[in-house]
Structure formats: structure tokens, C-alpha cells
Amino acid sequence: MYNSVIQINKSALKNNIDFIKSLIDKSVTLSSVVKGNAYGHSILKMIPLLQKLEVNHFSVYSSFEAKQVFKVAKNNFTILIMGDINNTDEDWIIDNAIEFFVFNISRLNQMLSKAKQKKKTIIIHIEIETGMNRTGFNEEDWIQIIQLVNANKNFIKVKGLCTHFAGAESLNNYVRVKQQQKKFKKAIKFFKTHEIVPQQIHCSCSAAVLAFPTKNYDMVRVGILQYGLWPSRESFIKYISKLNISTNPLKPVLSWKSYIMDIKRVPKGEFIGYGSSFLAENETVVASVPIGYGYGYSRSLSNLGRVIINNVRYSVIGTINMNMFLVDITSSNTIAINDEVILIGSSTDLDIPLSSFCNNTDQLNYEVLSRIDKDIPRTITL
Ligand SMILES: *Cc1c(COP(=O)(O)O)cnc(C)c1O
Q: Boundaries of each Alanine racemase C-terminal domain copy (predicted)?
């Protein structure tokens, strides 16, 4: 047994997928974004669950992640690599018809020459630079890639044309994102007039699906919403106020639980843990939990975190260590070693949402999730 467990709730996932589907047209493909070990949920566990919900299109960051998805995906599925392809994976990608973003000529040329040797076709999504200035073809390069594609039609299939927004989750970026949409539209027109008509035009991440529901084109690449979390607090407030509802339509999929390793009494006037960040102003009963920043429980939760033990909330005291942290349980006289400790998730009456980590520590929910230790076993709950 490991010293904590991550639970993946199947009905919450179904709830969220239904919610996402309610936001997009029937004709729009839902690509499930499972980069970052499926936002910490585990690629190996999530793919079968998603496929049961008829989600069969998966977007990953790297060829490494693509291989993980490939290992567990069944029947008809599509894998799309949005970012890095390691040189050693090029053959595997071509042999298995893995789709990928192309954002520079050198990658395209390299994959093309491999495809020619193998007498196979590569399936590409041309990424357009629209203003994020991360990856993507600048306008002045469009004609070059079009010529290269049109000269090698037997070896290159342009399946998609795509872009990514630089922060659709915040109104701060409204003007910039609007300009990106305009640029993307221009690119689509340009490619079409040069005989490149991709099946899948796509640009929307979770925030864009919420903010620009009429601009999804043929496919959406949705990550965070699937897992039951919002791209930002602002996007949540905006959504519920637009619909005039007060309940959260999403359900968090992930819970994280550990247990009490030790309990001890600390006399009044002593410092607790490393350094002097926590002073016991009274005699204090301290419980240790075998979880620390080494497992993704951020050090910035020092003296700030909360946990639930036996349906009561307790405070983290002192600094978070690599492998453990301490909880003040003075107010309880029933807690015992091995009692369950909820780090993220809910008990009968209480809830510790992942978003509370973010409020306290200035971390994104994306960041908290993707840093949770990959070795922690993930179990599926109904
Ligand atoms: C991560 C990512 C997404 C998904 O973002 P969410 O906000 O989690 O929906 C979509 N497209 C690209 C290119 C990404 O990197």
C-alpha cells in the first residue's frame, strides 16, 4: 500500500462530459485533453472511463503521453499530439497514424522524409500563429507550408487547422483573444483558397467553449472542465450568473486521501515543525500525515491547509515537509492513528475543494493537479 490514494469518481466524470456535450453542437467532436497524466488523474485510468462515455478523441502534449494513451485505448480512437515529438518516436507515430500539430517547416520536412521512406502518409494539424506567440506558423510562412503540402499530397494529409488562445479564461485578455479569432478566420480563408480544406478546424479550449460557444468550428479540445474544475474563478462566476443559477454544474472527479501516521502532545510555548513558523500558544495535540510537497502537496499550504478527519475540519500547522505535514487536532479526543485524512474531496457534511488550494497559494488548479505524484495509486469509485 502507498501512503495515500487518489479516487476517481466515475459518475462525476459522466456528469462533466454530459455538461460539456450540452455546451457544444452535436456535430462538434470532443477531444479530451489528457496531457499532464490526465491533469493528474492518470492517463491509464481515465482513458477506459472516457471511452465508456463515448469519448474517443484524445489530445496529449507529447509523444511520450501519446504512447501511454495508445497502451490503454481500444477500438476506434484518435490520438493528437499538440506539442513535442521526440525524435525516437517518429517511426512509431507514422506507423500508428498518430496525428500531430505541425508548427515549423523542419518538423514537417523531417516527418515527410520518414513518411516517404515508409510509403506512408502523415496526418497533420497545421497550427496557426494568431497572437499567443508560442508555437504556430506566422502569416508570412503560410504560403511556404501550403506549397510543401500541395507538392506532397500522397504523403501528407492535412486533417486539421488550429490555433490556441492566450487566456480566454479572463476578460483581461478579451481584446487579444478577439484579434486572435480574426486572424484565425483569415488563415482559414487563406488555406481554403489555396486548396487546403481540413476536416477539422479547431481552436477552443474549456474557457473558449464557455466564452465563445458559437466559435467552436469542428472540434473542441477540452481539458479542465472534464475533471470538474473551471478554467478560472471568473469563468465560473460568469457562467452561473449568465444562467442565473447558483449551483455548480460540474462535479470534481478527483479526491485525495491519506491517514494519520502518529499523534503526539506538544507543551505550551514550543515551536512545532521546522523553524519557528508555528508557536504552540497552548498545549497542542499534533497529528502527522505521511504526505508532503514531494507528493504534490504544496509547501505553500504551510500553516494554511485544511483537512477533514472524521467529518470535522482541522488546520495544517507548521511547514509542509517533503514527506509529511502536521495537523492541529487538539479539539478532538477521538482521533486515532490510521484514521482517514481527506486532503481533497468531501466527507458527509464538509468539502475541501481543490480550488481552496488555489485561493490560499496562488497556484492554478491545473498546476495543483498536474503535480500530484504519479505513483499514488488511482482507484475508481462509482
Ligand atoms: C491544455 C490545452 C488545451 C485544454 O485546455 P483546458 O483549459 O484544460 O480546456 C487545449 N489546447 C491546447 C493547445 C492546450 O495546450
A: 253-381
